[in-house]
Amino acid sequence: MIDYRLLQALSAVVEQGGFEKAGLVLHLTQSAISRRIKQLESVLGQPVLLRSSPPVPTAAGQRLLNHLQQVRQMETALGLTDDPQDLVVRLATNADSLATWLPEALVLPEQQAVRFDLVVEDQSVGLKRMKQGDVMACICASPQPVNGGAVMALGALRYRAVASPAFIQRYQLHQQFEKRISQAPCLVFNQDDQLQHQYLQHVAQAVPQRFHLCPSSEGFLKATLAGLGFGLLPELQMQSQLESGELVDLTPGYSLDTELYWHYWQSESPLMYQLRQNVLQVAGRFLSGSE
Description:
Elements: H1 4-16, H2 19-26, H3 30-44, E1 49-50, E2 56-57, H4 59-77, E3 87-93, H5 95-98, H6 102-105, E4 114-120, H7 127-131, E5 137-140, E6 149-163, H8 165-170, H9 177-183, E7 186-188, H10 195-204, E8 211-213, H11 217-226, E9 231-234, H12 235-244, E10 248-249, E11 256-265, H13 270-286
Parallel strand pairs: 3-4, 3-5, 7-8
Antiparallel strand pairs: 1-2, 5-11, 6-9, 6-10, 6-11
Keywords: DNA-binding, Transcription, Transcription regulation
Pfam families: HTH_1 (PF00126), LysR_substrate (PF03466)
Organism: Rheinheimera tangshanensis
């Protein structure tokens, strides 16, 4: 069994950004903090910190920090602690959810001292964070739960292929559409993003010939408005631009729906249960096909 004083030292080093500051918070000397970290690593047989500036937890260190936060959440719910420190929830999410519906879901109905540590991953690969024990919950496109976890369907984020009027004119997409759209530059979020590839395969039996990597949901929208490329954007994110004519739907009636799921650990604290219910309620108002 791990001594929780060692985990508290690890948490303090990461949160405070160094051994000396961690010592001040825990009323210990810097050398005492260092000894506790070394003792923890000796127990585990592997490092828990990268000695960078500031120190960064290893994968094993992050799993321990998540475990400590779960314990703190349970203690708070049971009234076993008067410690006013914030509870930390580490959550993996896709960028488009973060740019649209998710922030409202993170505002919990009860006043609680909660800090979110949001990890942004493409919805196609976000589940790896759960498998690694790196996060407490995950929003992604996979319906398969990890070992020790459970999953809840949230609904679908609907995407449409859009471009600016100037882009359509520049690449003459109003004629010979299938040929020209496959040659026109598109925007891709990152190497894991396959939405544009799916779209071109569906409408033109082609793959992107030219694309710009744009790993920002807000930047993706602005780049599309500026005419840098065409791309698939969530309806939730660009509805006003469609209505105003700043963006044009390239294939009216066509959409790509990305099903989203909430993954969580079965050993769920009351705080994580409350968060899950809030996420389900807000997703039900914004995502397609949800109830």
